[in-house]
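To illustrate the input format used throughout this study, we show a single complete record. The first block contains the structure-token representation of the backbone; no residue identities are included at this stage. The design step must infer an amino acid for every position from geometry alone.
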């Protein structure tokens, strides 16, 4: 597609963009490509007006508010706790040559626990996170397909739960992100209930499945290339570039959406105002114009990948996701000699084109 139809329209529907340059422009040029999807007062769609679905100036205001909690330094402070969680999860695995689902036992719970602790959610409520997160992704797909949003029971439960948390923090603040949001002011005004709800749900969804998939994709790659396990164990300095190459080669978020604000030309094709666009990050990260031998996995690359997006919406959680991935890999290298996936057929891919990763991955 990048070569022959770099900009392609689905039968009377959305326009798909595949080239690296075009994808970068769509993600970052907010004057022409809007992220806005909902309104600020629609209680049935709290993330429709959240950070990821807003344009400047509202986007800048919201981003300034949460970015303090996600600076590289604030994230580095979490390293000790993330190491502890990774160690506990690995300690709980059975010993010996036993098959386990590494997605269930490590790559799903690690990011869930981290984000739950950041938000200040008690441990016994975390089990419902995955269900809520899946339900929200399903809802977001309805919106993108132009369908009417049907609110599932899981989503209703999630909204009720976070509303209760917000009310509690209003009464008695704690040292967590929700209390910080309740207390925060944008241009002198407090955030509305829906704004705070939107943030909580966005972080829950954006921070979990993506990181799970990065980790699972890294393990899949190590199964395919067992020699890398030894190389990375011997030289841990190679772990960060390895993670970057996994992000490029198997991008956990495959595409993002935008809407054209006016007629605009990309790769010589004019897209009319009001069109919905799908910017294919996964394709951009395999563009030969930018990455030589793009279909080969090579740790030592100089060109940066765009797995975390580009421009003002660049992933807020990128330092956290990288840190979690590094710590999880270090913990695995310290304990095991290899990862072995006995049957590739038994690995279940996530059944959507939005994210790339695995729902289950039996390993030994
Ligand atoms: C935005 C990918 C992990 C929170 C984004 C975007 C991408 C992305 C591509 C840009 C969206 C756009 O341009 O419309 C990823 C990947 C991750 C990951 C691949 C893991 C490997 C996380 C984590 C968190 C997080 C751990 C939080 C705890 C966010 C937020 C935004 C965002 C809040 C919206 C930023 C904005 O609109 O200004 N992410 N993400 N992400 N991500 Fe991530």
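Output of the design step:
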């Amino acid at each position: 597609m990048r070569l022959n139809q770099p900009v392609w329209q689905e039968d009377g529907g959305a326009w798909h963009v595949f080239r690296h340059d075009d994808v970068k422009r769509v993600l970052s040029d907010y004057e022409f490509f809007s992220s806005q999807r909902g309104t600020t007062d629609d209680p049935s769609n709290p993330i429709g007006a959240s950070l990821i679905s807003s344009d400047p100036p509202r986007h800048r205001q919201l981003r300034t508010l949460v970015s303090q909690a996600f600076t590289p330094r604030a994230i580095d402070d979490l390293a000790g706790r993330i190491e502890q969680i990774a160690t506990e999860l690995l300690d709980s695995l059975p010993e010996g040559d036993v098959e386990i689902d590494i997605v269930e036992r490590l790559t799903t719970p690690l990011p869930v626990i981290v984000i739950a602790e950041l938000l200040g959610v008690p441990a016994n409520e975390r089990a419902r996170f995955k269900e809520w997160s899946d339900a929200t992704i399903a809802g977001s797909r309805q919106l993108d397909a132009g369908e009417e949003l049907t609110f599932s029971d899981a989503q209703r439960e999630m909204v009720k739960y976070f509303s209760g948390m917000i009310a509690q923090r209003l009464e008695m603040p704690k040292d967590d992100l929700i209390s910080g949001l309740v207390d925060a002011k944008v241009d002198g005004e407090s955030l509305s209930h829906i704004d705070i709800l939107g943030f909580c749900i966005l972080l829950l969804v954006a921070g979990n499945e993506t990181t799970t998939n990065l980790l699972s994709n890294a393990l899949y790659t190590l199964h395919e290339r067992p020699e890398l396990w030894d190389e990375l164990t011997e030289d841990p300095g190679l772990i960060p570039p390895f993670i970057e190459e996994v992000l490029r080669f198997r991008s956990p978020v495959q595409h993002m959406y935008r809407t054209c604000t006016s007629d605009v030309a990309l790769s010589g094709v004019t897209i009319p105002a009001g069109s919905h666009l799908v910017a294919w990050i996964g394709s951009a990260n395999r563009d030969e114009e930018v990455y030589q031998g793009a279909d080969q996995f090579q740790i030592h690359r100089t060109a940066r990948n765009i797995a975390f997006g580009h421009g003002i919406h660049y992933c807020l959680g990128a330092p956290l996701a990288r840190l979690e991935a590094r710590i999880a890999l270090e913990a695995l290298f310290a304990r095991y000699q290899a990862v072995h996936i006995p049957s590739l057929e038994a690995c279940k891919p996530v059944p959507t084109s939005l994210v790339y990763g695995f729902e289950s991955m039996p390993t030994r």
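Structural context for interpreting the output: The pocket of protoporphyrin IX containing FE is lined by residues 27, 35, 51-52, 63, 115, 202-203, 206-207, 210-211, 214, 252-253, 256, 281, 307-309, 313, 315-317, 320-321 (CB under 6 Å). The CA atoms of residues 119 and 135 lie 19 Å apart.
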